[in-house]
Specification:
234 residues, mainly beta, Jelly Rolls, 8-stranded antiparallel beta sheet, 12% helix, globular
Amino acid sequence: MGMWLFDEGKGGVATDSSEQGNDGEIHGAKWVDGKFGKALEFDGANNWVEVPHSNTVGFKAGVSFTITLHFKGTKVAGALVGKNYEDTSQVLPWYLLWNGGADNKVTLYLRDSASASFQAGGTTEIGDDKWHFVVGRADASTGKSSIWIDGKMETEADFNQKDGYGTGEGVFHIGRHYDRYTTGIIDDVALFNVALEEEDIKALMDDGIETAAAVEPVNKLTTTWGRIKQQIGK
């Protein structure tokens, strides 16, 4: 549904490499070497990427989804990524991969259209200036959301799978949550409208999106992986 590799290495646009074409405008973040190719570094003050509203970066009711990215930094003060959170639209359905405290642990935060909140919180501190693979997953078939750090599921939580998330008019942000900004490098942000399996998550973590999707990985669930490659455009 969306894939921002940040491999342009220059310019003010973060290209969506999926078939959706949801390019983002870069606000202040600078180009640096990433986990795979290039990436964007955010200063924690006023750097972010903004993707205009699109139905393809929101998830309809009953649809499973997975959010993935690589992060290396010292402070997750706001959202790594998030859709729809704005000061005038907090009651609308939205989602965030964010840190709500000072411990640099990441939470998948979902809010439905009735303003009920659902949180799956990680247990690993990722503000250690080392690369971490961060995944938020919501499985509509089970009603369970989960947070994964470095290929391992850390927490599961119930969520309302009968509602959609990120379906309002708000923008999609990378590196920002309202007026809070993340400090560090973000690489290979991707949105999938499937609940990725553990093997899929580990392949993306180890090989990066482009390499992992180039061939059919051994022992993969071919239906799921085929859908992933279709979204990426492979």
